[in-house]
Amino acid sequence: MTDHDNRNGHTETPRSDHFASKSKMAPNNSITKTPDKLKQSLADLGRYRDKQTFALLYDFFAPRLKSHLMSKGAHGEMAEELVQETMLSVWKNCKSYDPDKSAASTWIFRIARNLWIDRLRKEKSNLLSPLDNYPESSFVPAMKEFDSAKIKSALKSLPQQQAQLVYKVYYEGKSHREISEDMDMPLGSVKSGLRLAFTKLRNQMGEV
Amino acid sequence: MTTHHPDLSTLMSYSAGSLPDAIATVVAAHLSLCDHCSCHVQEAEQIGISLLEQLEPTPMSAGAKDDILSMLGETTQAAEPAKPEPHVPDDADVPSPLRHLLGHYLDDLHWKTMAPGLKQFILPAAESNLRLLKIAPGTCMPSHGHTGSELTLVLRGSYSDELGRFCAGDVADLDPDIQHQPVADTHEGCICLIATDAPLRFNGLVPRLLQPFFQL
Ligand SMILES: [Zn+2]
């Protein structure tokens, strides 16, 4: 793909000290993971079901998923459980991964998101809900390669309050009403702030 | 032809998995009909992924990786649960996220009369309020405001209020400061799927008497 994609890769490099002790894979193999390589690995996993490939994906995604789930409020142990469930689901379902439809991280984080929502429902025991809020989309968009670096710099350029709103939605998993209580802002302002932020971010994403 | 969509802030929160369950259901039902919004959701997911990539990885505990690697063999052997695609009749009018719960046809539901011209069906499944409302032609809903988010998807017929005309597929994504009084304005009446994450706020005495019927 574009060389932007390749440049993005090394910002995602795992801290090697986290991995040094338990990594079974060849040294240095973990250092650069571009979105394209991840995509290729996940597609390969579906095709060849090779444990080595799985281990590579695990090393990259598990610690990120764990951070993600913890920021949403899962304590360490639950976060790990959900990471394991997510990665097991990746192993079981990777045959249905379509690299033309989504990036590897998008696909995997969707699985994690859905498991997290299921877990929240189960905790409120009266809510064994058969609602299917995240069906596999039949919608196939014209696959646009987004430039992650551009989104990142666009995020940095947001006014502080808008950036905070965006973080609360994505990192903390807060609803609009919870954010309005947290930040002592009217609900309408929460929504308009997010709307403005989204518009700015997607304008930047669209620029070539 | 859809002309009213969920707010971008709502689509963003949907993609992040941060909406209250009931509201997410209404969004999912709209997305099954609207490529325009599905596209925005994909963009919002990209934003989310970029943010997640910025999180510092947290190391998994020792042994977690070996645990999972040892489980892979077992899962390969276990036959993958076949997911038979359930047959959906062409004329099914229950939105796809609700079909597990409600079956295929809105007319088969056990509607409860709340007031003349007004029937509802409360869905037992969600953390916040999720209901179907059936408004007879010409019927006026009581004027009301909201203390929280409300998302309404028109499933059949249409209604009009201060904000415009809402037809099948349209979503009204209301800010809490909006007061409105919907009127079903076609001959077939109007069926809506409504999610709130806080009680409706009715004005005036008569609507307040209606409140118990809404089970709020
Ligand atoms: Zn739409």
**How large is the radius of gyration of chain B?**
21 Å
Radius of gyration of chain A: 18 Å
Can you write the helix and strand succession of chain B as a string?
HHHHHEEEEEEEEEEEH
Percent of sequence in beta strands of chain A: under 5%
Q: N- to C-terminal separation of chain B?
A: 33 Å
**Relevant CATH superfamily of the largest domain in chain B:** Jelly Rolls
- Going across the biggest sheet of chain B, name each strand in turn: 1-2-3-10-5-8
Helix content of chain B: 25-40%
User: What is the first-to-last residue Cα distance of chain A?
Assistant: 14 Å
Helix segment tally of chain A? 10
3D shape of chain A = globular
CATH topology label of the largest domain in chain B: Jelly Rolls
Our estimate of the beta-strand percent of chain B is 15-25%
Overall pLDDT metric of chain B: 82
Low-confidence stretches of chain A: 1-31
> Quick one: biggest sheet of chain B?
6 strands, antiparallel
- State the secondary-structure class of chain B: alpha+beta
Query: What best-fitting shape of chain B do the alpha-carbon axes yield?
Result: globular
Question: Your description of this structure?
Answer:
Chain A is mainly alpha-helical and about 210 residues long. Chain A folds into two domains: about 1-125, RNA polymerase sigma factor, region 2, helix turn helix motif (Rna Polymerase Sigma Factor, Chain: A, Orthogonal Bundle); about 150-205, Winged helix-like DNA-binding domain superfamily/Winged helix DNA-binding domain (Arc Repressor Mutant, subunit A). Chain A is built from ten helices and no strands. In chain A, α3 crosses α4. The two termini of chain A are about 15 Å apart. The relative contact order of chain A is 0.10. Residues about 1-30 of chain A have low confidence and may be disordered. The two termini of chain B are about 35 Å apart. In chain B, the strands form three sheets. A six-stranded antiparallel sheet of chain B has the order 1-2-3-10-5-8, with helices on both faces. In chain B, α1 crosses α3 (about 35-55). Chain B has helices at about 10-15, 20-30, 35-55, 65-75, 100, 205-215; strands at about 110-115, 120, 130-135, 145, 150-155, 160, 165, 170-175, 185, 190-195, 200. In chain B, β2 (about 120) and β3 (about 130-135) form a beta hairpin. The model of chain B is unreliable at about 200-205 and about 210-215 (pLDDT under 50). With about 220 residues, chain B is an alpha+beta fold. Helices cover about 30% and strands about 25% of the residues of chain B. Chain B has two domains: about 10-55, Orthogonal Bundle (Arc Repressor Mutant, subunit A), CATH 1.10.10.1320; about 105-215, Sandwich (Jelly Rolls). Chains A and B meet through α4, α5, α6, α7 and α8 of A and α1, α2, α3 and α4 of B. Bound molecules: zinc ion. Zinc ion (ZN) binds near residues 2, 30, 34 and 36 of chain B. The site of zinc ion has 6 residues of chain B, from α3. Chain B: This is ChrR-like cupin domain-containing protein. Chain B: Pfam families: Cupin_7. Chain B: It comes from Endozoicomonas numazuensis.
